[in-house]
Amino acid sequence: MDFAGPDAAAFLQGYVTADLEALAPGRALPMALCNLKGRVIANGWATGDSDHVRLLVHPSVVPILARELGKYLLFAKSKLNEAKTGVRLSPAASSDAYELSPVGHYATLSTPDDGHAAFANACADSGFVLVTEAIAESFLPQMIGLTDAGAVNFAKGCYLGQEVVARAEHRGQVKQQLRRYEFEGEGPTVGADVVAGSKKIGTVVAVGSDVVLAAVRSDASPVVADGCPMAIRGVT
Predict the structure, then answer these.
(1) What is the spatial order of strands in the sheet that 79-81 belongs to?
(2) pTM as predicted
(3) Neighbours of 107 (CB within 10 A)
(4) What is the pLDDT of residues 134-164, one digit of tens each?
């Protein structure tokens, strides 16, 4: 998604969790955009400068993000447009690529899109959750590891949901936390229930080639996701 106009970065500064004053050529800032309840609508990276900011997010959340920000764009001098170019994702750096920390991949503006399947695996392997429509508006940033990934700047000014997110950080605990699992057979889908016995205790939030990330109750030990047996490999 592209924001273009004289106040593009200044406008978005009041809505995303990253500090857009740190935007610089060739730099991609991990970020998220939350609703008023502090739940993550979309996340990814911000690139650009003061009058042109591109948000690299999962395609499935673009309509949700556009709808949410559309409420506030009436008060901005900038406009929101769907990006006209795609993104090529690769583990190899190049002179015109943006590093997507902490995934270890690089993004280059390109048409057509390329490398997205391998990138999804890399996100899961690195413990980075890229929010999709299936889990949008469901989790605080802390519940899916986005604060650990550097996507939330607690020193900047206000943004949507800031009070809720800051309160959760101050208390030092949330009801759910991100865990990493191996799985057997075909992997579950994002949004699938994680259960212990017959009780739901969490939700699958990212799936790689052999790794699942799930937001689960802090006191729970999940064993099954959507019928797929899983084994704890470690805690993210």
Answers:
(1) 29-34, 40-49, 52-57, 2-4, 79-81
(2) 0.91
(3) 23
(4) 999 999 999 999 999 999 999 998 999 999 9
